[in-house]
From TrEMBL:
Source species: Methylovulum psychrotolerans
Full protein name: Uncharacterized protein
Top-level division of the source organism's lineage: Bacteria
Amino acid sequence: MDEEGSSRGLILSLLFDHCLLLHPEQTARLKNQLPAYTVGSLQRKSQMDVLLAFIKRALEHPDPAGMLNSLTQMIGDVFKLMPSEKHLSGRDLGRMETIPSLKYRAAG
């Protein structure tokens, strides 16, 4: 959090969403007064476009196996798996014994 209370990650996410408004397919939809595409679908489409461009380039390369190994290394370097904080994972939950009011409620 910065001084204004905004999360920089949130700001970056909003800027990215704003940039996707300029995506050529999105611009065409808006120009023709059609419903806009979702940000998620534009992200997935862009990711697949990049993957397909890499595959085409790798197939034309003299050493496709070497390019695939390079991609594998880059993926390992860039996309680090992060531990989840959902579902109270790894948190001290305090006392977990049943309290009297719950015993009566379960019996009734």
